[in-house]
Design a protein that fits this description.
Elements lengths: L22 H10 L4 E5 L13 E7 L2 E7 L1
């Protein structure tokens, strides 16, 4: 039987540190810090709620990150 895969841990990074940054700069910073997936969403977007390790979500309004969360 094959072993159960273990997802890698999220980078030791605070999502709050991205709030207020330009969206493009925040995405580049997140990738440099080790996030494998960065998702930018407009406010009020309908999204699936499954948790994906290594993903960082940005709510972007006017080109600025207004909210940020893991998964």
């Amino acid at each position: 039987m094959a072993p159960i895969p273990t997802p890698s841990a999220d980078p030791a990074d605070s999502p709050e540190s991205y709030v207020g940054l330009d969206a493009a700069a925040a995405e580049q910073l997140a990738r440099n810090r080790g996030w494998s997936t960065v998702r930018s969403l407009p406010p009020g977007s309908i999204i699936t709620m499954e948790y994906l390790a290594g993903r960082l979500n940005f709510e972007v309004d006017g080109g600025v990150v207004r909210r940020c969360w893991k998964g």
